[in-house]
Every structure is written in C-alpha cells, then in structure tokens.
Model the fold of this input.
Amino acid sequence: MYQIAVLPGDGIGPEIIAQAVRILKSVGQKYHREFKFNEALVGGAACDATGHPLPGETLELCRNSDAVLLGAVGGPRWDKLPVHLRPEAGGLLSLRKELGLYVNLRPVKVFPALAEASPLKPEVVTGVDLLVVRELTGGLYFGKKYRESLPGGGIRAVDTLEYTTAEIERIARFAFEQAGRRRQKVTSVDKANILESSRHWREVVTAAGREYPEIELEHMYVDNCAMQLVKNPRQFDVLVTENLFGDILSDQASVLAGSLGMLPSASLGGSTGLYEPAHGSAPDLAGRQTANPIAAVLSGAMLLRYSLDLKDEADCIERAVARVLDLGARTADLAEEGKAPVNTIQMSDRIIEQIARES
Ligand code: NAD
Done:
C-alpha cells in the first residue's frame, strides 16, 4: 500500500487535485496497486482553518508519506498577511525547505495534437521534449537579504547570490543522471561572462560532467538560452540551471506546450517527493470547474514514476492524456474559437475512459 499525502490548497487546487486523485485511483485499479490518499491543509485554506499556512500535522503527514501531491496555493485574500504567514512563502516554500527538496523538474513536452495551441509556430514547437532541472534551495531566493537606509536619504536593498561547490555538484549530477535516461545531452545555463557565482557554477558542472563521458555537455549564457528557447527549442534535452534563471526559463518554456494548464512538476532530493502543477491557484477560474486538470494529472504520473517507481502506470496515464488530446477534447484554455470546451470533470472522465480501454 502506497501512502500519498494530498494537499489540494487554494483556488483551483481542490478541483484539479480531485481529478488527479480519480485518475490515480483508476490506474491503480487497472494495475492492482493500492494507493491510500490522506488529505491535509496547506496555504490559504490552512491559514484560515489553523492560523498557519503549513500546520505541523500537514508537515508530519508529508514526512510520513511515500509522496506528496499538491494543487496550488495563494490568492488575493491572503496577499496582505505578513510574509511568513503567506500561502506561498510560509506554506509552499517552507514545505519544500522542510522536505529538503533541492531540485525542481519541469518536463515540457509538446503533444502533437497541441502544436497549433502554442503561440509559436507549429514547425518550431512540434517534437519539443525537454526537461528543466532547476536548483531550488540556493541562489538569490535564499541568500542574505536586507535593506539599509542611506545617509543622504533613500534605501539600499540587497539580495545575495551564492552557491557552494556541494550545492552545484548535486544538482549537476541529478541533471546528468536524467540525461542518461533521455537523449544524453545537458545544457548548463549561467551568466559566467558577468557573475562570479556563475563562473563557479560552470567549473563545477564541467568537473561533474567528466564522471559522465557518455553525456554531451554544453554551456549557454542565460540570455542566449532565453532566445534559443523560442527560436529552436528542439535543440534542448536537459537544461540545468540555478534557482532564479530556472524560475524564469521554466515559465518561458511552458509557453511551448500551449498552456500552463499542461505542465507538471516534481520537487525532489529529500526523502519525500512533492508533485504539483507548474501553474498557480488561478483565482479567476476557481469554483467554476473550467480549469485544465492535465498539469495535475501529469504531476500524478510523475509521482508514480519518480517516487513509487511505477513506470508502466505512469506511461499509461501519459498515453491516455495524449489519446484524449488526439481525439480533440480541449478545456477552455486550449479550445479553438467556436469549439465548445470540455470542463474539468469531463476532461478527466475522458482520460479515465482511455485508461480503462488500454489492453
Ligand atoms: P496562475 O498560474 O494561477 O494563473 C496564470 C494564468 O494561467 C491565469 O490566467 C489562469 O487562469 C491560467 N491558468 C493557470 N492554471 C490553469 C489551468 N489549470 N487551466 C487553465 N488555465 C490556467 O498564476 P497567477 O495568476 O500569477 O497567480 C495566482 C495565485 O497563485 C497567486 O496567489 C500566486 O501567488 C499563486 N501561485 C502559486 C503557485 C503554486 O502554488 N505553486 C505558483 C504560481 C502562483
């Protein structure tokens, strides 16, 4: 029996996670796997109920589970709270930190049926299948930060960007290992022409690369990478980069897939993996059952693959999603003008139908 902590969170979180859980149950039934889903509060919902966005019992449940499936957190209702009580900083970032998750994986795969849905030309995005490996616990987001008043008036605000050899080595190895299971190429992204931390990053990644002679390693400046991602995204297999660059580039890469509602993610490196859609809580869609559940569903597939080592079950979900898209089902974020979209539940119904139909 696999124990899965389920943290629906805020906004559309509960709607899409309910569907991801249905789909995990259906694939579990097909392959005779028993999943136990244990729900807990996180984010704004937890704040409202307990006064804290990451209650102790939620953290305890996550620590004692085989994997965590999370919807999304945040929304305008909680934006005015002090930082440590906000759903994102006090809830999600704390959870990642507490679980020791130092790597974020974001696969960006363009489903053939959706090549037309991207704002880029179909001939540019068709066949894109890349993986962004982002360092998640270092860099500017976690470095020393402060403000100081200047004698002549005004303020100096400081953030610090630092990386140790050990922090770079472990993420680099992670990227090389992933590339070994894919198309054997790593692109390490930095700004080594300007930043000292990037020069260090490049040296350490190069040294780690010598342990993986079968993997091709290239280095690319982040500004060039931003351009190449829209010009020729098919050139990439695994992109590895530091926290801030990874945050920006992975959102940019998400556009290739047609909608944020298509993109799953995994945060790994600790004892329990955390799986969540790449998008936020979309307060504009909440409560309407119109959100695209596929990012959450594919996050469930990643959970099976990375935390439970259930590759066939993960493949089955991914094939079912591809088939449903081939057959033309589209939620509102992907629907062509004049064509009626399916809602959140109907999209999941169709995925479940395909899972059941597979021999
Ligand atoms: P968002 O990702 O929630 O929404 C951006 C746009 O994408 C919106 O137009 C939304 O309607 C659309 N969208 C997102 N998910 C969709 C889906 N599944 N189907 C269809 N359309 C979808 O980002 P935002 O609007 O910048 O942030 C909203 C809230 O979410 C904020 O409070 C923010 O802090 C929070 N947030 C949370 C996470 C997280 O929990 N990991 C990540 C990003 C933002």
Remarks:
- The first helix runs from residue 13 to 31.
- The CA atoms of residues 168 and 201 lie 6 Å apart.
- The chain has two domains: 1-106+259-359, 118-257.
